[in-house]
């Protein structure tokens, strides 16, 4: 089993490869992450548009594990 980060912590923007030329992210349903498992910590800080991008990035066979708690900061945008 491989994780999406190679066992290294990254921001979601870095993991999804922000594309400053086209806008958005390079990793998506057309060019998915190479992983079997994606673990996201501090998920309460993720807004709706970033979560939408996250949900499109892993391959359909990958598991997604979301971690959060009630004492985390809320997202800056709608979420």
Query: How many helical elements?
Result: 2
Strand order of the largest sheet: 1-2
Q: In terms of structural class, how would the helical and strand content be classed?
A: alpha+beta
Cα-atom Rg, whole angstroms?
Answer: 12 Å
* Quaternary structure state of the chains depicted: single chain
Catalogue the unreliable spans: none
Please estimate the helix content. 10-25%
- β-strand number: 2
Mean pLDDT: 86
- Measured between the Cα atoms of the first and last residue, the distance is 31 Å
Order of SSEs: HEHE
Could you describe the largest sheet, including whether it forms a barrel?
Answer: 2 strands, parallel
- Looking at the structure, what is the overall shape? globular
Q: Give the amount of beta strand, in percent.
A: 5-15%
Compact description:
The chain has 79 residues and is an alpha+beta fold.
Features:
79 residues; alpha+beta; two-stranded parallel ribbon; 2 strands; 10% strand; globular
């Amino acid at each position: 089993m491989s994780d999406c980060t190679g066992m290294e912590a990254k921001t979601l923007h870095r993991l999804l490869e922000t594309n400053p030329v086209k806008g958005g992210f390079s990793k998506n349903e057309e060019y998915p992450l190479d992983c079997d498992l994606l673990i996201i910590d501090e998920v309460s800080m993720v807004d709706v548009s970033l979560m939408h991008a996250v949900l499109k990035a892993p391959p359909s066979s990958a598991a997604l594990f979301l971690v959060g708690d009630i004492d985390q900061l809320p997202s800056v945008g709608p979420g």
